[in-house]
UniProtKB/TrEMBL annotation:
Native source species: Cochleicola gelatinilyticus
Keyword Hydrolase: yes
Name of protein: DEAD/DEAH box helicase
Nucleotide-binding found in the keyword field: yes
Record lineage: Bacteria, Pseudomonadati, Bacteroidota, Flavobacteriia, Flavobacteriales
PROSITE patterns: HELICASE_ATP_BIND_1
Superkingdom of the organism of origin: Bacteria
Length: 203
């Protein structure tokens, strides 16, 4: 059964990449994420989590650039994963106007600030880097629509957990989608903070 009810541009790119049929995880998760709920997406490697994250982000932003402030944030563990995620996004955004930006600790925060200020739609970053930007008023989250966390197991580490808690306290309103291979008690705790009324999809 092919992908349904997605933006025509997304369907076209999926076709170009020979992704014609959703995985069991994608069938269950994409409609729930599209509904706007906060979601815990729990599935093993190879279930299509990265593609789901990209597709639902693009769907939420209607595949077009708007304004200057980021409307989607993708949080990843480290620079290597940030670059991988950036490359994966570019396969889907090269034919539309969406502006994807990648930030990480090794890139000076002032450089990130000025580049973000020029206007972006999707920010891929690490917790430490994002937290630094917040402390320096380097990113405006007023227009944020969706906040996705990739391979969220890294949040079990104390510093990443603290950075995320600090970030989410500064975000007034957004949908949160957290992806992981296994549900960890520490990830469940987020329900008391920013993952309110979250739904859990697991395969």
């Amino acid at each position: 059964m092919p992908f349904k009810k997605l933006h025509p541009e997304i369907l076209e790119t999926l076709e170009q990449q020979n992704i014609e049929t959703p995985t069991a995880f994608q069938k269950k998760s994409i409609p729930v994420i599209k509904s706007g709920a906060n979601v815990y997406c729990i599935a093993p490697k190879g279930s299509g989590k990265t593609t789901t994250l990209i597709v639902t982000t693009l769907q939420k932003l209607k595949c077009e650039a708007v304004g200057n402030a980021p409307r989607a944030i993708v949080l990843v563990e480290h620079k290597e994963r940030a670059m991988e995620m950036y490359d994966a996004f570019l396969k889907f955004t090269k034919y539309n106007s969406l502006r994807v930006y990648v930030g990480y600790e090794e890139l000076h925060v002032d450089v990130q600030k000025s580049e973000i200020f020029e206007g972006i739609d999707i920010l891929i970053t690490t917790p430490k880097s994002m937290n630094k930007l917040f402390l320096l008023n380097g990113v405006n989250t007023a227009k944020l629509k969706i906040f996705s966390i990739d391979d969220a197991e890294f949040l079990i580490q104390k510093s990443a957990y603290a950075a995320l808690m600090s970030i989410t306290q500064s975000v007034q309103k957004s949908q949160y989608v957290l992806y992981a291979e296994k549900m960890h008690p520490k990830l469940m705790r987020f329900e008391s903070y920013f993952m309110e009324y979250a739904k859990t999809i697991s395969v």
